[in-house]
Structure formats: structure tokens, C-alpha cells
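Notes from hallway chat w/ T.B., transcribed later so I don't forget. T.B. wanted the structure written out for a chain they're using in a teaching module, and asked if we could keep both sequence and C-alpha cells in one place. Agreed to drop them here.
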Amino acid sequence: MPRTTGFLRLLAVAAACAATTPALANDDTQLWHYSILTAPVGSDGRLTLEVSPRTREGAVGNEQVNNRATYDHRLNDTVTIGGGAAFIAAAGPNEFRPHQQLTLSAGPFQARTRVEQRFFNGADRMALRLRQRLQLTAALSDDTSINGSAEVLYNARTQTVGAPKGVDSWRGRIGVQHEVSDRLEMGAAYLLILSPRGEQEDQWSHVPQVSLTWRL
């Protein structure tokens, strides 16, 4: 299993980088798992189903499970449009979150623009969030790749009347993906989240991520 051994070495390096990240004044650690099933729909469409349990410290909320379905339709080699919805089960208010997205691809570069409508139990109104992500992917071998991304999440409308709009969070992520077979892919990543808190101290979140993806 030389290819898998190489992937595990990369995973160990990523874990070491996360472990040696200097502690910040106001930070927390989370762990996100992803189980993903993706299947083609016709010649240009793809349906993706995702379940993501997330262990979080009390500073940012209790544990939650994100359940998401997304359909993407490729218009050409550059442009893909899509949409779907997520249900987020949490100890606090549950959330229903439809989304629409546009993805532009050019070689190793990818830009994704996503609009999310957020419905919380007991909230004053629907919240609206915009997400812009830039990503770069590079091959390490025939079966393994590395990717890095930067993303900003912006609250265009809050669920509480009178609450200020503004940046929800800034996110930087680096990860590796390894194709175990034509049907199965596994991945590991480290995500750093900066959540501005206005006059209060900003929140930093360190998020190791692991994933398994099945392709039909």
C-alpha cells in the first residue's frame, strides 16, 4: 500500500502543523468529519449528499450535525451552477439553509460564490449570508493532491432585527486528498477560522477535518 502510506505521511505532517500552531488569546479547537456520497445526474449534472458531525467547544456553541444536499450543473468547462439545502441539527436552535452557487474553474484555480438563506427556529426573520471562496489545487502524484483555499463569509442580513451586518468569518484551509480507488477518496485538512467580534476580542478556531467520499 505505498500510495496510502504516502497519504498517511502527509496526514501526519498536517496534524503536526495544527498541533504546533501557537495558541491565541481567544481560541477554540473543533473537529469536523465529512461523509460524502456523489453521483452523476445525466451527462452534465452531479448530486452530492453530505453528512458532517462537528465537535465544538462551548466558546462557539455545542456539537452539531450538518446535513446537506447539492446539485451542480456544468454549463461548460469553466462555469458550473448549482443549488441545494442544508439542515443543521444542534443543541440550540436548528437551522434550515437553502443555497445557490456559481463556480468558475480555470486549470488549478477555482472561484465559488455561494448565497445562503438561513432560517433559525425562533428567529425574527430569515438571515442572508454571502460566501466567496478562492481555491488552488496541485497534484502531488497520480492519486494524491493538495489544495489551499481562502474564503470570506459576509452577513448581508441578520436573523435579529437591528443587529449589524458585516463579516461573519475569514477562513483559510489547506488539505490533501487521496484516491484509494475509482470509487473512494479520503482526505484530511486543517482549517483556521477568524470570527470578528466587534468591540469584543476576536475568536480564532482551529479545525482539523477528515473526510471520506464515495462516487457512484
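Follow-up for T.B.: The helical segments are 2-19. Might be a good example for the class.
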